[in-house]
Every structure is written in C-alpha cells, then in structure tokens.
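Quick one, T. Sequence first:
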Amino acid sequence: MKKELYLFVVSLLFFICVCLFYFIGWRAHIVLTDSMRPTIPEGALVITKPIESQHLIENKIIVFYYKPLHTYVMHRVSGQMYSVEERTISIQTKGDANKVKDPITISWKDVKGEYVIHIPVVGYVLKWIKTYIWVVGLLWFILYFRRLCTYMIILTVCLFPMEGHANFKKTYHAACYVTTGSGFFFYYLLNSTDTKQLSNPQVNISTGQNDTLTIDVGTVFGVVNFQTTIPNAFTITNKTKSLSTLNLSVQNVDKPPLSLVGINYIINVPHSATIQSNQIFSVPLQINFLPLLTIPGVYRGMILISDPGNGLSFQIPIVVRIQLI
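Structure tokens:
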C-alpha cells in the first residue's frame, strides 16, 4: 500500500510540474535534422523559454515559425535589421552546420522562444514512445492494473511530442517537432504543371509538390515521338535571396530485361539551371532516341537535382512507356 501511494504521489507531482512548465511558456522540442550540429545534435530534446527582450537575441538560438513550409525552425540569430520608420525588426538566421545564412528573414512575431538546454538522444526516445504509445500504455496497464498513477504517467507521456513532422500547436500542454532548415525544400520549391501526356491529353505529366512530385511521361511511340520536346514538365522556384545554379540529370532505375539502354538514354533534361531569387524555372523534357535500339516496355528512373553550393540534392521519380508502333 505504501509503495502504491508513493508511486501515485511521485507521478502526480511530475504531472503538475509538466503542466506548470508549459503554463509559463516553456516548451520542449525534438530536433529532426542536423544543421545545428555540433551545438545541437539530431534527435536531441531541446528546452526553450519565452524571449524577454527583442533587442538582446544576437547570436542566440531561437525557434521561429516559417510560414511557406508551415514548420518551426531552430537556428542561430546571425543579424538584426531595424527599421525606425516602420518600427520593425527583421532577423537573419543561420544553422551552425550550414555554409550559408538562411535564405529568409523573419519578423519578431514569428519568434516563439530561445534555446535553454538540450538533452541528446532523449528526443529519439520520446518520438519512439509517442509512435508506440499504445504499447507503452498496455504495459503500464498490465503492470499496474486499475491504479491511478498509471493514467497520470500515460497522460504525461502523451504530452511529448505531438504527432506530425515539424508541426506545432500553440497550447499550454503540447511539445513539438522542429526542423533546422537544412533540407532541399527550405531553399527550393518543386511544383507540378498542367502539361499533358503525349498519349493521353486528359492526364498531366507531373503531379504533386516537393517530396510528392512525380513525373509520368505516359506512352511514347518510337515512330512518332522519338524526337520530341515536352515543355514545362515541372517547375523549380528559387526561394533564396541570391542567384542559384542547379545541376540536373536523369538516372536509370529499372528497364525491360532485354534493353541495352535505360531511361537516361530516352529522356534528357537541361544539364544546369540558373535561377534568380524568387524566380521560377520551367524544366522541359527532351525525348531523343533511336527506335531500333530501344526495347518496348516500361522504363523508370530519377531526375536528380543538386545544389553543389549548399550541398543539397533531391530525386524526382520518372516513368515512361515505350511502344515502337
């Protein structure tokens, strides 16, 4: 009986402390990427607190909301710009492991907190607990059947973290995942277009956006389409504040068993794309092959887009079906 009472009191006190922690504006975040290494490793649990003064955040690590990606970012403040006329403050940030500053500036209203301390690996553990919370709850239920402390502990565990990658809900009882802005989509936006397949005018060649973008060229007939250009297959938007040069190529993934060539022989893309800040580059597909050297069937591959300057790359799935007649 004494042991049960002790567990109940401990779990109740722990639950109360967590509620107070959130009530005063402190937050717990799980870092999902490594652009703040070595200061903050990936998978760490980071504790943040409200910022008291907007004039004293130079070189501090902050969490801010990035609207275009609907995500929260944790980076270090590298500079502040004041506008006396508009009475505003613009903040420039940068990841400790990134070579360049973030391609955005944020306003004070987007800042949600400043870094206090982090605990390595704990973020991974809490993410696993959240993913398999039903297993944890079942084990506790079996070990401490019908004991109130079980429900207290399970309820507390549910506070860390919420479901959803890089999501945050502003409540007094929820933690969040944060990204540290080193991914491809932090700098570029990939988008589909309304360009139709050559063989089916009712179906678009590209669908999706960013990590869901796919390219389906449809059926290409060797006699008719062996030298064809498909304009505006998909687009790339440069979200940075400077000129960017990307390298593009097509890589083979799968081909018919008897074919001696892959999709990189059938379809070509521009070798490079130079894009001004906030401008859109339309990517065409060039179909150019010899029908006699190509076996009918389904060819699959990847369009590889790389940014050597920032060390970023991304692959877009592409498929084409070949018929000779």
